[in-house]
Structure formats: C-alpha cells, structure tokens
Specification:
By secondary structure, the protein is an all-alpha fold. It is about 75% helix and about 0% strand. The chain has helices at about 5-25, 35-65, 70-90, 100-135. The longest helix has about 40 residues, at about 100-135. The chain is elongated. It starts with a helix and ends in a 16-residue tail after the last helix.
Length: about 150
Amino acid sequence: MTNWQRTFAFVSGAFVFGLLFIIISNSFIQYVAHEGTTGYLFLFGFGLVFLNLNFGISRRFAIKALNASGVAYTMAFLTILPTIFWVYTKDVGLAELHLVFVLTVIFSAFLGTYYGLRRGAIKRQRYIQRLQDEKEDIPDSLKRPHDDLSNN
C-alpha cells in the first residue's frame, strides 16, 4: 500500500469514527450541563474518549507512515468536526456550555494526537531496529546468493 492510499484510508476512517461517536453519544451530551459532579464527570468522559480515540488513530498512523504529523492533526480535526457541527446545529441541551464543551473536545483530541505521534514514532523505531537485528541474525547459508549482487 503506498502512502497516499494509506493516508486516504486513515483520514476517511477518522471521519467515520467521529461520525460514529457522535451518533452513539449524542444523547449523553445533555448531561454535561448538569450542576456539580455529574456535569464535570461527563465532560471529563467526553474528553477522555476523544483523547484515547485520537491517540490510537495517530499512533497507528505514525507507525505505518512517514512524516505523519500534518496528516494526524488533520485526522484529529476530522474526528471532532462531526461533534462540533452537531453541538452547534442541534439543540443538545448545553445552554451556555457550548464553548466549554467544544474547547474540551478540541484540546483533548489534539493532546491525544500529540502523544499518539510521539508513541508511534517510538514504536516505529523499535520495529525498524527489530527488523535490522533479524536481518543480521540470518546465517550466511540461508541468505540468497543474489543479495550480494545488488550492492553494485
């Protein structure tokens, strides 16, 4: 799979995950506006879900693709876009907390993407190092004879 195909698959997948999440969780947004602990816990829960969702997507993408940072932040934006659109076009019962909810979602999504990219880069380096170690461990009797010819 070349890089543009992988990028298209991940970007469209991120948008689909964003749509899927808002469709499943739209009835729970109203609890963010509740007074006290309930509202804070639901706001924290939405933040954690977006953080983990974008962490996983960007980590997986960073393992597979080179120079993944710009595309990963685009994927994070496409993950939160359906939620922001839903909050501002539907009456979800947030009252004056629209801005707080949107800022929490944006912050947590981009924070998850940042840490996902860092973790993905580490895992990519470990994977490359493991492949190089395995390549060196092959005995000479098992190497293909034409491998030495390609070093011209």
